[in-house]
Amino acid sequence: MKRVHVVVRGEVQGVGYRYTLRMIARGSGVTGWVRNRTDGSVEAEVEGTADQVDEVLAWMAEGPPGSRVTEATVTDAAPSGDETFEVRATG
């Protein structure tokens, strides 16, 4: 299993980014979470097979219609065995 921590910057809040990502993630079979950050970015952790994670990362680099992703920082994280993909409160 592969898990990554991602911070996405740009116009990514108020455009349905988190809820669309939850749909994409669940459809891809990955687990983890996503939340808005107080600095205007979106933060997420995504866990699954390498192919599943790469598929979700490709979507995250584009985002939903109405968003404008200017940067996505990806770092490896330790797998946690989450059972679903959830939207968390702003952190």
UniProtKB/TrEMBL annotation:
Organism of origin: Microbacterium gallinarum
Signal peptide stretch: none
Gene3D superfamilies for the chain: 3.30.70.100
Acylphosphatase-like domain sequence ranges: 3-89
EC id: 3.6.1.7
Name listed for the protein in its UniProt record: acylphosphatase
Active site: R18, N36
Domain of life where this protein originates: Bacteria
SUPFAM superfamilies named in the record: Acylphosphatase/BLUF domain-like
A Pfam family per the record: Acylphosphatase
Classification via PANTHER family: ACYLPHOSPHATASE (PTHR47268:SF4)
UniProt family annotation: Belongs to the acylphosphatase family.
Catalytic reaction list: an acyl phosphate + H2O = a carboxylate + phosphate + H(+)
Keywords for this protein: Hydrolase
